[in-house]
Amino acid sequence: MCAAVAPEKLSGNVGFIRFGRSDPHYPKAEDALVMAFAGTDPVSLFYAKPSDKAQRQFWQIITRESATDKGPPLSCMTSDGKAAVVARMWPDNKITALNYLWSTLRMMMAQPIPRIKTGPLTKFTDWMKANKKKMAERHGSFVYVVQLGARPEAQGQGLGSKLLRRITEYADSQGLPCYLEASSPGSRRLYLRHGFVDVEEFPDLPVFSMERPAVKAAKVSP
Fold it and tell me: What average pLDDT does this structure show over 87-115?
């Protein structure tokens, strides 16, 4: 379990708090991420029903699957709870096949019936799995940035950049590459500014797998 810690200074009066899946700070981080994506992100708009309940359920499942108590304490949120990032080591700390299947089945419940019949969600999740597998084959261990978002009223304030920089600085300190999937033009522009490059585009949606090369540096704790 990631222990709750005092906020650490990011910029000005903004600090961050690390969290894990069982941490008391987790619900606030989950809420920030669900609010950031539900009803606006192209992935859930395409794969989930348009209702607020289905949109929120879709992202709650993803966040709960992705947050972890294992490995380096990479996931963190701003001290005001307005933005959060979920990251984990991969494949060292990858999601188990059983958990992956269970989460996929639950997400399918949020899909419209025609989507379930055509199976596009499994096509998308298989694409993500294949890209992470190829990333591991090329580089070995890497930092997987699963989610990064801010509540609507806090977007455009640079909070995402501050949280992402903490992740990339840790990766650089360990000589590790980073990987993520960018699901909107705005997020892709952010990641490009932070040194990520396009690897592959998903054929059905403008979603890009992206990676950031490893930078050799002295190792420090996250």
Answer: 65
